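EI: anyone free to look at a 569-residue chain?
SC: sure, send it
EI:
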Amino acid sequence: MHACLGIEALGLCNYNPAAPTSIYLSIGEAVSALGFILAVQQLLKPIYSFRLRARFGSLQLLYGLMLIGASCSFIAAILPSIPALQQRGPFSYPLIWEIIAGLFFVAAYLAIIVAIIWPVLADAKSISRFAQAAARLLSAANDKDCIDFIQDLHRSLPVIIRESKFIESLRKPSAFVEFSHRLKIEQSSYASSFLHILSDEKLCKILIEKAPWQTAAILRDLSDKELHSRAAEPFIQGLARQAVVSDESMFERETGYTGFASAPVLSESLFDLPFIVTRYDPLAGLRFNTENKFEEKGLKRFNNAAKRCLTSVIESGEIYDARTAWSVRHHYEGIFRSLYQVREIKPVDHMFMIRIQDAVEEAVSLAEKIQEGFSASEWDYAFVTSADDRRSDMLQDLVEIVIEAFNGIANEFNGYRDPFWIMALQSFGACFEKYSDQIGLTPFQQRLAFKIVDKLNDNMNGYYPAISRVMLSCIGLYVAKTDDKPTPSNIIRDLVYRQMQKLPILAQTQPYKIEHYLPNNMRYSNRTTELTFTYGDGRTKGIVLSLLNVPARDLADPAIRRAHQARTS
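SC: here you go
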């Protein structure tokens, strides 16, 4: 009998280290445990390896725990065979070493269990480990790995965005500031770099196609917490781009009339939330793609996204911060400037023509929505004094969308035989309220009229695009009435024909260009200055331009403006 564990205060015990009654952990079992942990590491899913690296820096710690445990087991096994070490304190007992070995084995297994169960929550001090481990995962990840990563991303993204803002706040820092905040700058740089990695096209495509609702939850979380950094913008814009261009995205299913259209979770999170739309400008990442520019489905999705974004901005009241509207306008301009190529595609895709018409009419509808919210002073301020009076507001961007649509179809426009005839006629009617008795022009109509007159003036000087072909086709021959009221349709008719009365001058200076500015069913006689219109049934009708008594309309004259009260009544 001897003091238990060598401590007399514990009394006597019958455990003799020289003749132990049992062994709890043999060398073979320790080696088996070590082999098992190594095998488990090889079988671990990439997401679990990522979590271990993000928490502990590397998998070497896991190996170290197992090696220490195996070493303790080896010591416990050989200790009874070394008499010189027997009864020399607590560590002369094999049981102590076996307990230590067991603790290290348990720690290693717990690390694996934690990695399997709990996603990583990065903090300011661990961002560098998180960023490096995540970059390693995503560089070789398959679709399933990216989906598994969403939980960790969701938990850690708010912290990463907050940390990335520090380096953005520095403006030419001094050497002292860089030295005193070097650790903070390093962590912020890692956060910023990681956010740029998230904009990877493959990752964004997977998130939109395979995990749309989890992605929507991330976006809503950013909106609720009002988290923004410039480094995170490419990620949000990458998500929006994939939502628009991918036929397999959830956004495609949400733009229909049934099914997920009744629960457009992704659409609302990506294009409806005012904070996401105004701060991240999701459609800014969408670049005009010459490979799929005439795909009807893609244009339908973009129309839907643009409508949601612009409506959200209007409802937020930030119409004078036209960043989002400019992004929408920029993409539409790329499409409209290539519309001339559509005439070469056979058979004609009529659904694509409808989507173009939807885009223009939606721009008109949004302009009306903006004007409905104007106060009397805002209404007056919205009018311009000339075509060169440039405004950087959303209303101006909507004007540019419409005029670019007309310009895009202008050259070689063939009147009622043109593939874009219905689009041109309906859009023109929507812009200038063809059957309305309202007097005067709204700010939108006045700005658009200025643009049209400016382009017509270019035409009469021999420049393109030949928007006169579209205007003449939509208006037809000039018909004067005794009680012509200054309605929008009458005003634009007079403005167009005042410019067309310059045709004799163009015929004298550049006669070979006359036919470029008239639709195919119109002919001009330089001898008589007669403009002849041919109907579909072969009938003809003409007017003499030099004899027309067209009222002069001054778009800068306040008298031509519609009263604010009349607009809101």
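EI: The chain has a mean pLDDT of 85.
SC: 👍
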